[in-house]
Specification:
Layout lengths: L10 H13 L16 E3 L4 E3 L1 H29 L3 E7 L1 H5 L2 H11 L3 E7 L2 H9 L5 E4 L9 E10 L1 E5 L19 E4 L6 H13 L5 E5 L3 H9 L5 E3 L11 E4 L7 E9 L6 H10 L9
Parallel strand pairs: 3-4, 3-5, 8-9
Antiparallel strand pairs: 1-2, 5-12, 6-12, 7-10, 7-11
Length: 291
């Protein structure tokens, strides 16, 4: 044991001493005299602390309180009542399932702190594999990622978001080929290659070669550019529930890209208690296809 952790007394001696210092009763005082200085003055009628005793009591009381708090904290961590979880998400998650999960989790586990970070799907995969995230909400790739466990939370066909004054905004629904003259606002393929390729595939099947005006991230910026009249973008019906008045959502008939949202975490090893608590709440979310 390192020399700085070697003491001529035991923890119980400090507890005895502090109790005697509080009660000024001498029954246990002799237990705490191993500090190398007299701590008490005893007369026939009473027990008093020496200056050294008062200084010693002042020092050890916060130490004992800290040790007691540390023990409670460890027990709370083990039970999953306290802790810290890093959670990454995409705009699709925040626009759909994540707010409800966060609200319920905060109600049931107020002692666990969540560190939230909006991050592209590809960046989340790298961070999860490196152990830098507890879990992530993102669009999955075409093939499973080794070492990650996922749960599908959302699976929806995309529709089109248009400026409210767009010529096609008066129609109740659209087909992709009708947008041949409309520029598109997308996101960089490097951020989410799976969905990006699904967009291009749906366009190709519909006989459309999309004209991409801008590639921006996060998703909220794309919506802003549509509001500015720079083009159209793809969003799901779930994302379109609360839109500003200067844009409109129109469903697509025929070919349309599909958005998928998964919750992912590393396994093995088994999740730590705080992460397991978050996953249990998130796992109660119903996916859009009812699974």
């Amino acid at each position: 044991m390192p020399r700085e952790y070697q003491f001529p007394y035991e923890l119980r001696h400090l507890v005895y001493f502090l109790e005697v210092a509080r009660q000024l009763h001498f029954r246990k005082a002799a237990e705490a005299t191993a500090v190398g200085a007299p701590l008490f003055i005893r007369s026939r009628r009473r027990v008093e602390l020496t200056p050294a005793g008062r200084a010693f009591a002042k020092r050890i009381e916060p130490v004992l309180r800290s040790l007691s708090a540390a023990s409670r904290e460890v027990q709370a961590l083990t039970r999953g009542e306290e802790g810290h979880v890093r959670v990454a998400f995409t705009g699709l998650a925040m626009a759909t399932v994540l707010p409800g999960i966060l609200r319920e989790f905060g109600r049931r586990f107020p002692g666990i702190r969540l560190e939230l970070n909006e991050s592209p799907s590809t960046a989340q995969l790298v961070a999860l594999q490196a152990g830098e995230l507890g879990c992530g909400f993102f669009h999955p790739g075409a093939t499973p990622t080794p070492g990650l466990k996922t749960r599908l939370l959302l699976s929806e066909r995309n529709g089109i978001l248009l400026p409210a004054d767009h010529p096609l905004a008066t129609k109740a629904s659209l087909k992709l080929h009708e947008l041949a003259e409309t520029p598109f606002v997308l996101f960089p393929r490097s951020h989410n290659p799976g969905f990006y390729d699904r967009v291009l595939s749906a366009c190709a099947k519909a006989g459309l070669t999309p004209r991409i005006a801008e590639e921006v991230w996060p998703r909220a910026n794309g919506v802003g550019l549509v509001r500015a009249g720079l083009g159209a973008t793809f969003i799901t019906p779930s994302e379109a529930k609360n839109l500003p008045g200067d844009v409109v959502f129109r469903p697509l008939t025929g070919h349309a890209p599909e958005s998928r949202l998964v919750l992912a975490w590393r396994q093995p090893p088994a999740p730590e208690p705080a992460l397991a608590a978050f996953l249990s709440v998130a796992g109660e979310t119903k996916s859009a296809d009812g699974k």
